[in-house]
């Protein structure tokens, strides 16, 4: 590590001045992939058909937790989740737990807001699911 130049002195030329510095962009491209790490409750949200997801969002908006409760039963009907290593009944109970959390905390508005975001996540997952052209029967 070199000492900083004093006031009035010229800065010494850096070694390897012909090399690009680390802060500059190079001509080679770098692909960066960002992957969201989901907790068990978030990963238990099922991939449902789009109309069912919209109905669950509607239910969650007006009765917190009801749409999440309904979505738990789509897991029993074969809907895929991001928890492939867990048994269907475990994922079902995770969704029931999420619905109960939403219902019990709706009194202080936290559950109602969580319920709306949960419904929006259902619709987002359903739209990605329908874009890929998969059906529930193909994945189970």
From TrEMBL:
<protein>
    <submittedName>
        <fullName>Stum, mechanosensory transduction mediator homolog</fullName>
    </submittedName>
</protein>
<feature type="transmembrane region" description="Helical">
    <location>
        <begin position="50"/>
        <end position="79"/>
    </location>
</feature>
<keyword id="KW-1133">Transmembrane helix</keyword>
<keyword id="KW-0472">Membrane</keyword>
<dbReference type="GO" id="GO:0016020">
    <property type="term" value="C:membrane"/>
</dbReference>
<dbReference type="Pfam" id="PF15795">
    <property type="entry name" value="Spec3"/>
</dbReference>
<feature type="region of interest" description="Disordered">
    <location>
        <begin position="1"/>
        <end position="30"/>
    </location>
</feature>
<dbReference type="InterPro" id="IPR026673">
    <property type="entry name" value="SPEC3/Stum"/>
</dbReference>
<keyword id="KW-0812">Transmembrane</keyword>
<feature type="transmembrane region" description="Helical">
    <location>
        <begin position="91"/>
        <end position="118"/>
    </location>
</feature>
<feature type="compositionally biased region" description="Low complexity">
    <location>
        <begin position="10"/>
        <end position="20"/>
    </location>
</feature>
């Amino acid at each position: 590590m070199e000492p900083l130049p004093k006031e009035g002195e010229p800065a010494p030329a850096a070694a390897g001045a012909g090399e690009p510095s680390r802060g500059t962009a190079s001509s080679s491209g770098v692909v960066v992939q960002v992957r969201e790490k989901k907790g068990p409750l978030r990963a238990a949200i099922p991939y449902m058909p789009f109309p069912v997801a919209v109905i669950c969002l509607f239910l969650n908006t007006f009765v917190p937790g009801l749409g999440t409760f309904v979505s738990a039963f789509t897991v029993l009907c074969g809907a895929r989740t991001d928890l492939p290593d867990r048994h269907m009944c475990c994922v079902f109970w995770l969704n029931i737990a999420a619905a109960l959390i939403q219902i019990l905390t709706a009194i202080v508005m936290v559950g109602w807001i969580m319920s709306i975001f949960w419904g929006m996540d259902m619709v987002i997952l359903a739209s990605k699911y329908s874009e890929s052209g998969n059906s529930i029967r193909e994945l189970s």
